[in-house]
Amino acid sequence: MRKVTLVLSDGTRFHGTSFGYEAPVAGEVVFNTAMTGYPESLTDPSYAGQLMTLTYPLVGNYGVPGFSVEDNGLATFMESDKIYARAIIVSDYSEEYSHWNAKESLAEWLKREHVPGITGIDTRQLTKVLREHGVMMGKILFDDEPDNIPEASYEGVNFVEQVSCKEIVEYKAAEYTAADADHLAPLRKPNGKKVVLVDCGVKNNIIRCLLRRGVDVIRVPWDYDFNTLEFDGLFLANGPGDPDTCSVAVENIRKFLATTPIKPCMGICMGNQLLSKAAGATIYKLKYGHRSHNQPVRMVGTDKCFITSQNHGYAVKTDTLSNDWEPYFINMNDGSNEGIRHKTNPWFSAQFHPEACSGPVDTEFLFDDFLKLVTSYKLRATSDKR
Predict the structure, then answer these.
(1) Dihedrals phi, psi of 375, to nearest 5 degrees
(2) Active-site annotation, residues
(3) For residue 271, which of 208, 360, 352, 170 has the smallest C-alpha distance?
């Protein structure tokens, strides 16, 4: 394995060795404290443009599942069709792996997808640097190629445009035939309801969670004016980067909020930020973000606390919400916003990931709440036409 150096934008250097694809790379260096789930994290489009550091020291010991596709076109064990993180940074890469579902090693997968991986890095110290100084740009350089220096930008780049689908994709609930249906979301018969999903970089399990509940999903590009379509509910998906680069999507959401008859809306992660911007709120960048499986959030107005999976670097300024809106969840570690809801209309969102994959599924009930609203408002609209 070749010697490499991780160079942060403040000049800090960490030395290690390469175990993935051997090419220099640059990106925003972030850290994730989850103990498992690297196949899901690497294929999460929200990591586009980033060098992902894992704080758990041992990585690769359970290998990587084979890539397969369900009847509906979704990857079976991945959150998208490829790796979106620009690189993975670990402390101790395990060349040996053992798992009933593993088909190849992490190193083999990275090389096949042309994604660098480096090991031997003191990821705990790296995380301390990022926590103290905030996330920053970094470069992975090969020691025997000192003049091969990559360049990259993160701030102001519209990564959503890069990862979103380019045309409309439709998924029929009847096509979802998973034999091992999740015990928390049993398969339900198709119910004829249609949900438009704005793809800002959607994870596959969000689509699965909707299909499992019997609805058809119409997946549209991030900048598509979905208001021209016939649908019963709107879903705003997760995605990478700065929501301030997605003004077209915000305008389409504003148009939706002003349209009658009223239809339900749910957002996740980037979807929470875009819905908040459409409602007039402002967004700010967190010092080092939330990327883990163990973020505690409290439902505002209650003593209910949930452990959630998270991956975001931006947050909503709660005090900039208009009087018609209120915070839905707050983060118990730093008090930042974790969701909003309208006081009278069926619109709400979560900054965390109730679909998990990977991570805890404590909050998957939010999909049920959304579908109850879709059913209720469709019945109301049908009654009003009579």
Answers:
(1) -65, -45
(2) 269, 353, 355
(3) 352
